[in-house]
Every structure is written in structure tokens, then in C-alpha cells.
Amino acid sequence: MFTSTKNTQRKKRQELIAKYLLMTMTLLIILPLILIIFYLIYQASPILSVDFLLKNPIRGMRDGGIWAPLLGTIYLVLISLLIATPIGVFAAVYLNEYARESWLTRVINLAVVNLAGVPSIVHALFGLGAFVLFAGIGRSILAASLTLAIMTLPVIIASTKEALAAVPVAFRQACWNVGATRWQTIREVVLPNSISGILTGVILQVSRAAGETAPIMFTGAVFYKAIQEGDLLAYGLLDQCMALSMHLFTISTQVPDVPVALPYGTAVVLLGVVLLVNALAIVLRFKIRSRKKW
Amino acid sequence: MVAGKSKISVQDLRVTYGHKAALKGISFDIYENDVFAIIGPAQSGKSTLLSVLNRTLEFTADARYRGIVKVDGDDIRHLHNVYALRRKIGMVAPLPVGLPLTIYDNVAFAPRMAGIRTRDELDHRVEQCLRQAALWDEVKDRLNTLGTRLSGGQQQRLTIARALSHQPEILCLDEFSIAIDPVTTMRIEEVLKDLSQHMTIILVTNLVQQARRLANRTMFLFNGEIVELDHSDVIFSDHPAQHKTYEYVNGIFG
């Protein structure tokens, strides 16, 4: 009864091939990532230390640390997210919870999707025109953060909408049925149950904001600027600043005779910041999901 | 029961979803403190009718209704406070939807949204509603556990308690027994009999026998039209006015 026929043997063979083929492809994705990380750390090892993080670059950026660009990146990322998160989240709540299906909302949704695909250099030019020149803010941390905010906004809207849509409609109906208003429903049931997804979407934008060079290059980042070492408030909103991504670009292509370890060290720190934030997102999501209620 | 005061009055109600007609001009009255059953196969417009009553139909994008629906004599189309209307009507959905909150908060939700804040009042309201829904004895020691951890039958009674928590005058149950076992169904039916002493109950059901057990009057809806509306004794007798009713009630079609 259970003897295998020719047909079942062939299916078994196909099953094995499919399984191992797919597994190989998966491994092929992870391999370069691991190689990159190890290579970076290996090359950067002579220079990595706490001092490297806390000292300004010196001798025409051929020595010293990365304090000024590190703090600059932290400023840019935090301020851009402070601007983009409330706008993006509230817009997504409106689009998902209030807006009726009409040509206007369809156009807005289409715009959000398309804006998410606009190259960062285009955002850079927009930021230069709109914030630096037209609004007269000048090249500054504020202008650069606004540009980064415009860049991350559509993605935050899209991911927030997705998180909101994952909350079952039945929950909303249950609230409406007992006489709760739309806003009460959103505040008491929809937001608490989508907050982990919303936060994840927002935090993932940190890596984008930290990694982009183009949008800040025209709007507020400079090649070199020394600041008070160890002072977390060393930059003002209207100051220009250094940034890790731009610093990495500068010392690897624009400055001659930079010791090899320096750009690699900068890359490791940039990668470290991004991975740290992503890890934070994962932990946060895990924590909130463990309290998930349905 | 003799025809009493009209609690809900529906005149020539038509509902469309886009171009599709769901209700095709129905008129009827539901009397105060009556138990009114609506039977009929799927897609006959039963649930649509309920969503018209508390005006949650307007959350469906392409849904429109025409005709006059009066609750306590007021046309619901011209209300100043739609939330008061929704609080006047308790809704129980086919599948129990426990809000992702504790048992206590599930029941206290509606009173809180209506502005009741004092702990004593909320405690009292929660206990009263859970008792009315015959759930209190099973959950009184674990009011702070999640409502979604309860069994299916308990969750359905929790949603009944929640539907009662805003002290409605009308209780609508939309196929409440679809997801629960017969024993629990019978318990809830007992609860409904008690509630019908001081509440108007609208019972949408696929179980013909359930309508027969509970309802004074029964309406047979088919394809968005009323086939027959009469006292349950007549509907479930061997000689209802419409032959179609007889066929449906006795399982010959539908």
C-alpha cells in the first residue's frame, strides 16, 4: 500500500532540489553581509577605541576621531524624525481612519507611494530650493533635517497606514456600536494595537536618514567643522554640521594620504549606529508584541 | 402580546451598496419590550437592517439608505447626537469580538466613553452587566485578565455584557449563537427571556427554532423584501400566509 511508485520518487527528488536550491539562495544573501561586517571590523581594528568616538578629526582629517560627524548625524536624525514622525503618523491616521474613498484621497495615496520612490538627490535639490534659499533658513542643521524629514515622510506614512490597517475592522465596529466616536476608537483601541508596527516603521527610517549623503550635502553638512569635544549641545539649530555619511565620503575620496583604518573605522561606527537602532526596533517590537492582546 | 407602543418604526426602507440593492423597500414596526425575530437566508438583508438602525451603515463607503426610520418617534436621519442613538441600541455581533482589553475594561469601555469616570459607578455597572449576561460568577475573580482569553461562549456573553453596558433600551443580536455550543446558547436564551421584561429585543437568527422559542413576532426576509411578518405562532404554524414561509421554516428551501 505504501510502496513508492515512479511518480512519487520523482516528486521526492523535486522536493529535495527545491528545498536545497531555496536554502542556497538564502545563504547567498547572508554571506555578503557577514563578509562586509567582518572585513570592516578587521580593517578598522587598529583605530577603534572610545577616544575615536570622542575626539574631533585632526591634521586635515588624517588623524583623530569622529566626534563632530557622529554628533552631527545624531542631531540630523533626531531632529528630522521629530519633524517627520508626528506629521507622518497623523496623516496616516487621517488617511486610514477618516478619509473616504474619493479621487482626492486616491491622488494623495498615489502621491505618497510615488514620493517614497523619489531619489534622494531630488529631495536634496528640493531642500536646497525650498528651505535654504526660499525660506531663507540657510545651510544649517535645521534645513538639512527638514530635507531628511521630507524624504522619510512618505515611508513613515506608508508603514503607519499598514500598521493601522492590520487592526481588525471588527474592533472598530465594536467601538462604534457602543457609541464611541471615531477619535475615541482610534485613541483607545486602534493606536494601542498598532503602536509596535508604527514604531518599527519610524525607527527603520533612522537608518535611511543616517545613511544618506545627498540630501544633507547641499543643505547643511560641511566637510570640516571642529566642535567642543564631549559637549552634547555643541551644535545649534542654525549651525552647519559634519555628518558620518558625508565624512566617510570625504576621507575616502577627497583627502589624500588618509590612513586606511580611518574610513573603515567611520564605516563601522555608521553601521554600528544603524544596527543598534534596528536592534532597538526589534527589541521594542518583541516587547510590545509579547503583550499583544488578540 | 397585544400590540404596544411602537419603539422602532420603519417605512419604505431601501438600502443600496453601490448599484446593488440590499433592502428593497420594507416597512414594519417593532413594539416596546417585544421580542422581534428576523429570519431569512444569507444575503437577505438582515445584518444591513441592523446597521441602519444604529447608523453604523455610514461607515461603509458606498452604502446609501432611503426611507424613514424612527426610533422612539425620532427620525434617525436628523439626529443631533448619533452617539446617543448608538447607546440606546446594544449590538451583539455574530462572532464574539472581545476588544483587546481586560474583561473589566471591555464592559467599562462604553460607560467611560460616555463620560463616566468614578470608580464606584464603573464597578457597579460592570458587575450589573456581567450578572445580566450570566457571566459574573465565572469571571468575578479574574476581571483583570484579557477578555480574549475567555472561551468562545464566555466571550459571546462578554459582548452581550458590553452591549448592555451603555444601558440600551433596544438589544440587537445578530446570529449570536453561530460560534457557540448549544448548552451556552440555551443559557443565553434564558438571559434574553429575563432581559425582555424591560427591553426591546431584536433577534436576527438562522436558527428557525430559536426564533420560535423566543420571539413574539417574526419577520421573514428574503432577498431584501419582507415575505411575511406575523406573530410567531402563525409563522411557525402549519399554515402561514405565505407558502414560501412554510417551506423555509420547515427546511424545504433555504
How is this structure best described in words?
Chain A is an all-alpha fold and 294 residues long. The longest helix of chain A has 39 residues, at 6-44. Chain A is globular, with a radius of gyration of 24 Å. The mean pLDDT of chain A is 87. In chain A, strands 1-2 form a two-stranded antiparallel sheet. Chain A has a single domain, classed as MetI-like (MetI-like fold, Orthogonal Bundle), CATH 1.10.3720.10. Chain A has helices spanning 6-44, 50-54, 67-98, 103-115, 120-134, 141-165, 169-177, 182-190, 195-211, 214-217, 244-253, 261-290, and strands spanning 57-58, 63-64. In chain A, helix 4 (103-115) crosses helix 6. In chain A, strand 1 and strand 2 (63-64) form a beta hairpin. With 254 residues, chain B is an alpha/beta fold. Chain B has one domain: P-loop containing nucleotide triphosphate hydrolases (Rossmann fold, 3-Layer(aba) Sandwich), CATH 3.40.50. Chain B is 35% helix and 27% strand. Chain B has helices spanning 46-53, 82-88, 103-113, 119-132, 136-139, 152-164, 182-195, 208-214, 232-235, 243-249, and strands spanning 6-17, 20-31, 35-39, 63-71, 74-75, 89-92, 170-174, 200-205, 217-222, 225-231. The longest helix of chain B has 14 residues, at 119-132. The two termini of chain B are 29 Å apart. The A-B interface holds A 100-101, 168, 170-181, 184, 188-189, 192-193, 292-294 and B 54, 56, 59, 61-62, 83-84, 86-87, 89-91, 93, 95, 97-101, 109-110, 113-114, 146, 148, 159, 162-163, 165-166.
